Amino acid sequence: MRVISGKFKGLKFYPPADKWPTRPTTDFAKEGLYNILQSTLDWEETVMLDLFGGTGSHGYESISRGCEDVTYVDKHIPAIKFVEQTIEKLKIKDQMKIFKMDVFKFIESTNRKYDFIFAGPPYGMPQLNTIPDRIFEKELLKEDGLFVLEHNPDHKFEDHPRFEQIRKYGTTHFSFFR
Asked: What percentage of the chain has pLDDT greater than the value 90?
């Protein structure tokens, strides 16, 4: 895995992900997504929430592009340890806050609002289809904010009232909500 652009451009990181319950976004799909986001978000002004953060790839990418405030949420201890080591190595500890907890409990407990929310849940998660409603019911997104949900072709969100568009990169789909 690598950082696509910004101050860490080209940085490769190798999480010891054997038997992890994570599915990192491919570099191809991540590059496509961040090319869209580059013209949509003002990274220096963006407050980001990374749900099901896994390896931390989306947080590193956002910080590399200028984001100063990333909240990372995951409950998988080995992934969290990897992210803690990586942010220490990159000297971005002040920019990336780690919450070691269940994503749904985090959504219920936080009062913070975000400019950009990314969620990359396990595709087989039974509650995956409820994530957009939970985000909007808890009003976690700022008024002009953007929420992107990564999923596979088995999930459809085009009928959701906040759905804006979908981008497909092979079997990786990104649904955009506002």
From this structure: 88
CATH of residue 138: 3.40.50.150
The answer to whether 34 and 27 have CB atoms below 8 angstroms apart is no
pTM above the 0.70 mark?
A: yes
Domain range for 153: 43-55+75-177
Whole-number Å distance between alpha carbons of 53 and 47: 15
Mind listing the pLDDT tens digit for each residue in 5-19?
999 999 998 877 666
Apex 131 CA angle, 127 and 137, nearest 5: 125
Eight-state DSSP code of residue 160: S
The answer to whether residue 12 is domain-embedded is no
Over residues 68-82, the mean pLDDT reads: 95
- Compute the radius of gyration of the chain from its Cα atoms: 15
CB atoms within 10 A of CB 86: 19
In a domain, 79, yes or no: yes
- Greatest C-alpha distance within the chain: 43
DSSP state of 25: P
Helices marked H in 65-140: 77-90, 103-109, 131-137
